[in-house]
């Protein structure tokens, strides 16, 4: 205690120097603390963002050319010109499998499957207003304009037309429609789709125009996207019904088509994926797990039979977590997404008949355990939306090939092909991708604004490092200079103390305790002040802009909020304490080294000034 | 009565270029209550010998005995704190402590209570002929003679029996020199201290009881 008091007494008699030392050390410690605090905070932010943000890329094959399509319009008696994209061939998914592509999940080229589940009904699905009817024109006529057609029997439909109805019928888009005879009976599929603005009225029935709806022809394609040959010519929608017609091949096909109408009511879209975040609705937060859980990595990897169902479907079907769904996959659609095909205001507008004229047979079936229920918007007819009553499964759970059950095919587009990479690696990825020089495939990235935030944070980290380095250099300079002043220049004092009988450790304590206290006070005050200041500064520059310029703001805001919430939990005083501790330790080492040097000097040699 | 005895004491060290034999086979005896001078030219080994007597260094060969006990076997820090004190040519007071605090320091190191240490310090300062106003003054405010007196008072406070003084009058004018020498003489003859001074000054040597001369590390008694 005496030694400490003596040390303090002598130190405080150098008031000016001690005060200067204290102030400089406070300033330097403050710089260190601010730098470290910024570094830690921004690192924590970055880590929080790392967990909250994710970067996905979507892939789109560009059309090889745009072709003019001329479609006859019976109303204007001329062709209407439409542009349509033409692909010479579909680029395979394997193009994305290149050296250096480091995917966290995917890339995957998704299709949706149709699963026939007669136990469950697609309540509320907006079925296409198409009907299969038998009937005859009221009089012989070429349907190049709306003609009166009497329906004698409705074979399949949704109640839009009833037996005996007279409908307005026009082969609207056919430049050379065949003549229909009043004394013949025809089976035809028609759809409510007014082509003429002026609606006709026949025999007092208030009917609107129906046009042909081609369901007899199969859309089936092979694995390469080539159409599987079909006996039915393109655009065929109508056949004359003669005796024994339904026993003929064509008649049986009609019966199959009629039967498939019922399938539409019980067929649910099923999408397989390796990561639900690759599905845009889940990525952007429009769909979310509201009960249960997502699939585990193991379930994805093993292809376990687990599934996610929508809240609406679960509620209507009385399903709960743990229940099993008997999925029976009939077809795969590689052209449209479930979000496009299964909407509440529209129906799947494709034929369920394969090239053999039969309803697609089930190629994969099994019971899938419901592990999660998702909420959010669905069935709004959006390529990037969830399909109505869409069921999600791990893609690897489909073990059998769908090669013979492909209903439609198409190119990779943003809504069906995506992958996930590590945040902040877009440039690296694109550099490698561009080296491949694949010009007809375009990749679009969505990172919720991560790149922008990362750039800002990297700037902040750079400033933080600069402050930290400046602070450290200044601390070392201050400690070094004042150690020289308070210790090395006091070697005479040490020598006198030694001559007076002070033991080495007495002399050590005598010099060390005072300066150590100053270092302690200076570093603690500086670090705490720096920490407080950095908190204030951080608060002021707290950004609110999580806007994702690429995609939209909903996802970015959610990600940003989550991230902000997690990094706010950091304890600033912990950083200040670490900083102060480091400075105190450095100061102690420097001071101790100085004192050690002093103690190595031979006291008499020093005090007598002798040179030998 | 013998208090210090050097027997065949030698001290050598390795300088940058060669081995230096600073003290060569020195034997001598110092008695209580006597005033000694060691004279010699610069570099003759006087200060080295003094540091050996102070226990700040150990002889390379030979032994120094303190009242018959080998110094090398003793706690040499305790020896300096309780029995032998050193006074320097340049005073070497603690510049940031007052005269009284300088003197109090060794007393407080001996665990003396602060009040008692202050009282004794004042007495010692009075004993060396300093006015009470000096007590609160810092060394830089004092004259050389005053500073040396404070240094002697501190040595007296520190050491119990032996005062080792290295050129104590080297920085003093003749008036102060006389006073300091008289004080040291008085401490030896009246208070029973063994005072050993190193000096170049013949006048100082003349005031002592015995004189040793050192030359090239060797010592001979010339009086």
Briefly characterize the structure.
The complex is a heterodimer of chains A (612) and B (223). In chain A, 38% of the residues lie in helices and 22% in strands. Chain A is built from 14 helices and 20 strands.
Can you describe this structure?
The complex is a heterodimer of chains A (612) and B (223). Chain A has helices spanning 2-12, 15-52, 249-266, 280-283, 297-302, 311-317, 338-341, 426-435, 450-486, 491-499, 504-540, 553-567, 572-600, 603-608, and strands at 55-61, 65-73, 78-86, 103-109, 112-116, 130-137, 147-156, 166-169, 186-192, 209-212, 238-240, 267-273, 287-292, 306-310, 324-333, 364-376, 391-394, 406-408, 417-421, 441-446. Chain A has 612 residues and is α+β, with helices and mostly antiparallel strands. Among the domains of chain A are: 2-53 and 450-608, no CATH class; 130-262, OB fold (Dihydrolipoamide Acetyltransferase, E2P), CATH 2.40.50. In chain A, strands 5, 12, 13, 14, 15, 16, 17 and 18 form an eight-stranded mixed sheet that branches. Chain A has a five-stranded mixed β-barrel with strand order 6-7-8-10-9. The longest helix of chain A has 38 residues, at 15-52. Chain A starts with a helix and ends with a helix. Chain B is globular and about 50 Å long. Chain B has a six-stranded mixed sheet with strand order 6-7-8-3-9-10, with helices on both faces. Chain B has a four-stranded antiparallel sheet with strand order 2-1-4-5, covered by helices on one side. The longest helix of chain B is centred in the last third of the chain and has 16 residues, at 174-189. The interface between A and B is medium-sized, with 27 and 38 residues.
């Amino acid at each position: 205690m005496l030694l400490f008091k003596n040390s303090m007494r002598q130190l405080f008699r150098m008031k000016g120097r001690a005060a200067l030392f204290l102030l400089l050390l406070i300033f330097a410690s403050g710089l260190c603390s601010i730098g470290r605090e910024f570094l830690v905070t921004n690192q924590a932010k970055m880590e929080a963002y790392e967990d909250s943000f994710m970067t996905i890329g979507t892939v789109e094959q560009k059309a090889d050319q745009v072709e003019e399509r001329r479609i006859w319009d019976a109303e204007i008696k001329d062709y209407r010109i439409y542009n349509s994209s033409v692909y010479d061939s579909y680029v395979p998914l394997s193009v994305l499998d290149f050296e250096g592509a480091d995917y966290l999940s995917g890339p995957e080229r998704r299709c949706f499957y149709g699963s026939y589940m007669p136990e469950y009904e697609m309540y509320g699905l907006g079925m296409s207003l198409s009907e299969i009817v038998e009937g005859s024109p009221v009089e012989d006529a070429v349907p190049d304009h709306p003609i009166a057609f009497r329906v004698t029997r409705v074979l399949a439909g949704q109640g839009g037309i009833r037996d005996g109805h007279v409908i307005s019928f026009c082969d609207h888009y056919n430049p050379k429609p065949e003549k229909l005879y009043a004394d013949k009976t025809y089976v035809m599929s028609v759809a409510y789709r007014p082509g003429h603005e002026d609606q006709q009225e026949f025999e007092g029935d208030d009917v609107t125009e129906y046009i042909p709806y081609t369901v007899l022809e199969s859309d089936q394609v092979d694995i390469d996207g080539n159409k599987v040959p079909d006996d039915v010519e393109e655009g065929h929608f109508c056949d004359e019904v003669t005796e024994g017609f339904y026993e003929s091949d064509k008649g049986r096909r009609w019966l199959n088509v009629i039967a498939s109408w019922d399938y539409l009511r019980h067929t649910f879209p099923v999408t397989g994926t390796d990561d639900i975040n690759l599905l845009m609705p889940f990525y952007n937060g429009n769909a979310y797990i509201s009960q249960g859980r997502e699939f585990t990595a193991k379930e994805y990897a093993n292809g376990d039979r687990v599934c996610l169902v929508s809240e609406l479907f679960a509620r209507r079907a009385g399903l709960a977590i743990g229940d099993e769904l008997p999925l029976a996959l009939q077809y795969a659609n590689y052209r449209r997404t479930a979000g496009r095909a299964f909407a509440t205001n529209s129906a799947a507008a494709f034929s369920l008949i394969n090239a053999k004229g039969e309803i697609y047979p089930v190629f994969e079936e099994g019971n899938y355990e419901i592990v999660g229920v998702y909420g959010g918007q669905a069935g709004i007819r959006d390529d990037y939306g969830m399909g109505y009553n869409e069921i999600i499964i791990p893609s690897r759970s489909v073990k059998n090939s769908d090669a013979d059950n492909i209903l439609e095919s198409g190119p990779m587009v943003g809504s069906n092909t995506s992958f996930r990479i590590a945040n902040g690696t877009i440039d690296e990825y694109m550099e490698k991708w561009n080296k491949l020089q694949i010009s007809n495939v375009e990749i679009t990235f969505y990172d919720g604004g991560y790149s922008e935030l990362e750039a800002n944070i990297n700037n902040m980290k750079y400033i933080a490092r600069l402050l930290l380095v400046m602070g450290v250099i200044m601390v070392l300079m201050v400690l070094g200079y004042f150690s020289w002043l308070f210790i090395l220049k006091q070697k005479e004092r040490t020598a006198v103390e030694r001559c007076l009988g002070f033991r080495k450790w007495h002399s050590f304590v005598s010099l060390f305790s005072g300066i150590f206290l100053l270092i302690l006070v200076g570093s603690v005050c500086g670090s705490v002040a720096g920490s407080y200041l950095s908190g204030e500064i951080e608060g002021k520059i707290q950004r609110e802009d999580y806007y994702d310029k690429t995609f939209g703001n909903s996802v970015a805001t959610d990600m940003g909020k989550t991230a902000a919430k997690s990094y706010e939990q950091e304890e600033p005083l912990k950083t200040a304490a670490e900083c102060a501790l480091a400075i105190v330790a450095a100061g102690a080492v420097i001071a101790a080294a100085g004192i050690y040097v002093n103690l190595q000097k031979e006291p008499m040699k020093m005090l007598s000034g002798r040179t030998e | 009565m013998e208090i210090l005895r050097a027997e065949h004491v030698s001290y050598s060290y390795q300088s940058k270029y060669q081995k230096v034999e600073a003290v060569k086979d020195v034997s001598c005896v110092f008695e209580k209550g006597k005033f000694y001078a060691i004279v010699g030219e610069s570099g003759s080994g006087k200060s080295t010998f003094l540091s050996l007597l102070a226990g700040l260094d150990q002889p390379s060969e030979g032994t120094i005995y303190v009242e018959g006990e080998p110094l090398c076997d003793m706690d040499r820090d305790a020896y300096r704190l309780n029995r032998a004190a050193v006074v320097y040519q340049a005073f070497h007071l603690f510049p940031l402590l007052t005269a009284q605090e300088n003197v109090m320091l060794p007393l407080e190191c001996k665990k003396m209570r602060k009040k008692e240490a202050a009282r004794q310090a004042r007495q010692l300062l009075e004993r060396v002929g300093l006015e009470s106003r000096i007590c609160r003054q810092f060394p830089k405010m004092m004259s050389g003679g005053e500073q040396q007196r404070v240094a002697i008072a501190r040595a007296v406070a520190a050491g119990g029996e032996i005062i080792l003084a290295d050129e104590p009058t080297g920085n003093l004018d003749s008036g102060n020199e006389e006073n300091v020498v008289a004080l040291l003489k008085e401490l030896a003859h009246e208070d029973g201290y063994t005072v050993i001074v190193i000096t170049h000054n013949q006048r100082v040597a003349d005031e002592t009881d015995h004189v040793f001369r050192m030359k090239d590390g060797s010592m001979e008694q010339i009086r």
